[in-house]
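Limitations
The structure tokens in this dataset are predictions for the assembled complex, not deposited experimental models. Users should treat interface geometry with appropriate caution, especially where small molecules or nucleic acid strands are included. An illustrative entry is reproduced here so readers can see what is and is not provided.
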Amino acid sequence: MHIADGVLTAPVVAATYGAAVVAMGVAAKGIKEEEIPKISLMAGTFFAVSLISIPVSPTSVHPLLCGLIGIILGKKSPLAFFPALLLQALLLRHGGLTALAANTLILSIPAYLSYLLYCKLPNLKTLVRGGIAGAVSVVITVIAVIILLVLSDSRFAAGDFSVVKIVMLGHLPILVVETIVTAFAVQFLEKNKKSWIAVKGD
Amino acid sequence: MNLKVSKKTVIFTCLIFILLYCGTALAHGMLLKLEEPGVFRVEYDGGGFSTSTEVILYDQNDKVLAQGLVDEKGKFYFDPNLEVYRAVANDGMGHRAEYKEGVKVSSLPKLPVVIGVIVVAVAVSVYFSNKSKQKLKVL
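Predicted assembly:
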């Protein structure tokens, strides 16, 4: 789910960089010192976890953790994704620098929407809320990737080379894994480390 | 620097890294290698490949010499007499790899990089955690 250099067209790169700058600005606004530990740990976690390769024929996918990171960081999620993606691109050539903003957005938007969804479902059990947020985050990430790729090259949407088909099928196992991991991680946090869950308005 | 952190924070931090990083760390960037004259092989960094990967071969003037999908072994066969200067593989999922004649691609070993990044992330976290705790104590 890391778009490489040379895949996106110049207008898409420019638009995503513009949007990412706004997202980073909003995220950094009013940041408190006590939030930095969470952001730093989430950046490290994402860096490591998203390097775990899961071969799913006909492709290979990796965990995203957007839902969990979104529930923990709220609108500050881009501050964790951006440095992690930057380091992955610079150190491991995993994702491209021209696509850095796009990659940041396709993770940050689902993360924030998952957090909103988590806040909007107060009547459900924590486990269920976490699971739903985790699942929805994967779906939104996949949709975001498809939109960006199709905007760059309509060929991605056609025939056997259809990115829609491959990305959707490839991420079904990730959807299941993320649902379970997010559900249990959020339940663990609610019980043991409630301060780690982003409060409304974060 | 005071490195006192609560037990819960340490346990939670360790748990998050151990539970979520229990597999082999392998990025799935994509690689395009000239296996032998007339044969390119496409592979994800973590192993495997997508049969939807398209390979395009270019000459020095960026003219397309050949293009097509890889076979069931991740290989793309072409006429070895073609003067390929550059080749691009694209799996249609955002992964793209490039081969350039005479250019050797080197990459850092992953495990030390991952461990290094995690150590830095934890160190930053501990530092700011302590700093904010001290601030609270002063208040």
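Some entries come with short summary sentences. For this one: Chain B has two domains: 30-100, 108-139.
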